[in-house]
Amino acid sequence: MMDILQLKDKNIVVMGVANERSIAWGIAKKLLEVGANVIFTYRKERSKGKIEKVLNDYQDYNTAVVECDVNSDESIAAAFQQIGEQFGVVHGIVHSVAFANAEDLHNRFVETTRDGYAFAQDTSAYSLIAVAKAALPYMTEGGSIVTMSYLGAERVLDGYNVMGVAKAALEASTRYLAADLGAKGIRVNAISAGAIRTLAAKGVPSFNTILHQIEEKSPLKRNITQEEVANMTMVMLSNLSSGVTGETIYVDSGYHIMG
Ligand code: NAD
């Protein structure tokens, strides 16, 4: 079959695999299937162990597992230096990382603390800019950066609070980065994914209600899968989307179009 994706032997950094339920793991699996070299970054030792365990089934593939705490410039710089030394060129980045303090999701929005606000922004939005900056010296052949967003960026969703504001900043950062890096042939896009039961989703208090509402109201009358987000991410990483940048693409059963 003709290789329409052209991701074989490309070096793609996948940030945010905590376990097999992670959106990032669905993407990594597809990347490995098409012959890309996948560089996993993790924050916690526990995630490192889980990544190495699932990679047992992918012994013959070209992979690496690198520590990267996106709250730290030093950690990001060290990670990309290591990646650059080992792989030379970076062709793509999947930024699938977000975090907020639990109390900022549970409390009334008006109770959001200065620290909690800054922490959510730093981890979930600024991290995209910091990562793009650190990767830039190695993205010498152009490439594609894809981040994960959510409808809470534009609508008020129960229990999403400070994370909604962080996702709004993330989507705006996607546009500004796209404008800044476009001349270097680097595209930057966000995927606004529907609700998926993952570790991060456990922090959203009304998650079950959200899943139910999507089933009831979305055009497709069902929730989306990890694989569907992965498929769209493959398109956004590949040449198939070569004319698209600065965009937020919805993989949400069409939920966002409904009144
Ligand atoms: P997940 O918990 O599996 O992944 C979140 C990842 O962020 C984890 O791997 C965690 O280690 C990482 N992370 C948090 N703080 C970090 C830090 N300081 N440094 C490095 N990594 C850090 O959950 P997920 O649902 O796969 O989330 C991935 C992305 O998808 C997030 O941006 C999330 O907001 C977004 N998203 C999720 C849903 C959903 O319903 N699950 C919907 C839309 C968007």
What's the helix count? 8
Q: Uncertain runs with pLDDT below 50, 5 residues or more?
A: none
Instruction: Name the CATH architecture.
Output: 3-Layer(aba) Sandwich
Beginning-to-end CA distance, first to last residue: 42 Å
Q: Share of helix among residues?
A: 40-55%
Give the C-level CATH assignment: Alpha Beta
Number of domains: 1
The class by helix and strand makeup works out as alpha/beta
Order of helices and strands: EHEHEHEHHEHEHHE
**Approximate strand percentage:** 15-25%
Characterize the overall form.
Answer: globular
Write the CATH homologous superfamily: NAD(P)-binding Rossmann-like Domain
* Record field, number of beta strands: 7
What's the CATH topology label?
Answer: Rossmann fold
Strand neighbour order, sheet with most strands: 3-2-1-4-5-6-7
Pfam family, one: adh_short_C2
Active site: 150, 160
Catalytic activity: a 2,3-saturated acyl-[ACP] + NAD(+) = a (2E)-enoyl-[ACP] + NADH + H(+)
Keywords: Fatty acid biosynthesis, Fatty acid metabolism, Lipid biosynthesis, Lipid metabolism, NAD, Oxidoreductase
